[in-house]
Amino acid sequence: MSEKRQITVARGDGIGPEIMDATLKILEFAGAMIEPEFIDIGEKVYLSGETAGISNEAWESLRRTKVFLKAPITTPQGGGYKSLNVTIRKTLGLYANIRPNISYHPFVKTKHPDVNLIIVRENEEDLYAGIEHQHTPEVVQCLKLITKPGCEKIIRYAFEYAVKNNRKKVTCLTKDNIMKLTDGLFHKTFNEIAEEYPQIETDHWIIDIGIAKIADTPQEFDVIVMPNLYGDIASDVAAQITGSVGLAGSANIGDHVAMFEAIHGSAPDIAGKGIANPSGLLHGAIMMLVHIGQAEAATKIHNAWLKTIEDGIFTADIAKGGPSVGTVEFAEAVIERLGQSPTTFAPVMYKVGLEKNEIKYEMSPLAKDRVKPDVIQELDGVDVFVLNNTYTSDELGEQLESVTGEDLELIVITNRGVKVYPGGFPETFTTDHWRCRFQFKANADKTNKEILNLLQRIDDAGLHCIKTENLYTFNGEKGYSLGQGQ
Ligand code: NAD
């Protein structure tokens, strides 16, 4: 390899500059063919008035080099500052968050000496779409958006990762016993894609018992794929049980750009003291080298790092009161061991060709360019959400019955998802937020115009509609859940 690969580098906040300098020094001595291009992001940029925490020049660099090595940043306290991590992931379409969790027993203390699992977390969708609204004085909502292409991309990524990295099993975690449409879509897509990989064992657990099992018997897992929020929680649990949150790195992979980082934050409590552990960021950098096809340097650094840990050279967070070295000394110890292999741990050998360009998936086309699914979508009715702190359930029901018109009928009213009309129980607690479900009669004119007419009649009756959700069927199947008790 002769040409150096340009990469964008942010030295970050807090301990960021210390661990980035240590990491880049190790990469340089290992012969990594990279040319860092430094950008400013984070606290300094936020406080200069850029509420997104990133400048136009920084975006330009990221879009040009397509590879980003990022130190942790500090998000200033208080309102108005958006999370830069979420902004970068979503703007650049970094849909896959890959977090290896590995125990380094007996050198790093852990209750689980044999953890070696990979979490593949969906990184853009779910509740992290960040679409939140206040509907009434008492009620707020956050939209959980799960898309078919989003599920396909992340699940295929998990299977491809398993194949390329000699992993035997892919586990899916969801809560589809409750969220049958959203989590149900994720699980269904998992089952569909699993059929393309008969050589890989698969299983599925409901998220609650799934995370409990990660905490209790992590050795049962190999690769785990899950929606965004569950992945966020499960990956911290998985990292923590290895006894080494400070050691883990992560990759955020997209079709165009990829970002590599440590999983921890900017640790302001120890910033400037020269004692931070650079290992998490170094592991992120190793994943970056593999991604850009520099497997040899990645292998050399990883083995030198394992040897350093075996030789009992620890920063204070790992030494836990025992003898320790500072950030710079730790980096020097790794550099001294470049070319050596561990003797207790199995040496690592990265194969060239693991980078994403060789992974079997296609660039995701935009919706307008995708093959249109062969689906008949028909309007079936509407959920009208009403603000009401005046009437009882029955009184509200009677008012709405009088405005249904000829084409629609009032099927049910729920409050927080539970049926309160007709035939509600007086024991059911209610808020000021009522979901009123109207369905078209069999021979009705099933159009949005009829729904608009209904809304006009509801408004004329003096009721306050705060939002609507159209009800559709897809190839005759209901595309909406029933209310509890409906
Ligand atoms: P943190 O991860 O920064 O620190 C938690 C604890 O772990 C602290 O006691 C810290 O000293 C220790 N620690 C973390 N990394 C260490 C390392 N490499 N070596 C030794 N000890 C280490 O979490 P926090 O205190 O909750 O957050 C601090 C700031 O970091 C916040 O502004 C937060 O928003 C930000 N943050 C950024 C990222 C990111 O940029 N990816 C991730 C998480 C938090």
UniProtKB/TrEMBL annotation:
Q: List the keywords (alphabetical).
A: Glyoxylate bypass, Magnesium, Manganese, Metal-binding, NADP, Oxidoreductase, Tricarboxylic acid cycle
Alphabetical list of Pfam families matching this protein: Iso_dh (PF00180), Isocitrate_DH_C_bact (PF18324)
Which EC class is the enzyme in? oxidoreductase
Q: Which residues form a coiled coil?
A: none
- Would I find ATP-binding among this entry's keywords? no
EC numbers, comma separated: 1.1.1.42
**Would you say which domain of life the source belongs to?**
Bacteria
Q: Magnesium: present as a keyword of the record?
A: yes
Q: Which SMART domains match?
A: Iso_dh (SM01329)
Q: Which reaction does it catalyse?
A: D-threo-isocitrate + NADP(+) = 2-oxoglutarate + CO2 + NADPH
Cofactor(s) needed, names only, are: Mg(2+); Mn(2+)
GO molecular function, a single term: isocitrate dehydrogenase (NADP+) activity
Residue span(s) of domain Isopropylmalate dehydrogenase-like: 6-334
Q: What family is this?
A: Belongs to the isocitrate and isopropylmalate dehydrogenases family.
Name the job this protein performs. Answer: Catalyzes the oxidative decarboxylation of isocitrate to 2-oxoglutarate and carbon dioxide with the concomitant reduction of NADP(+).
Describe its partners and assembly state.
Answer: Homodimer.
Name recorded for this polypeptide: Isocitrate dehydrogenase [NADP]
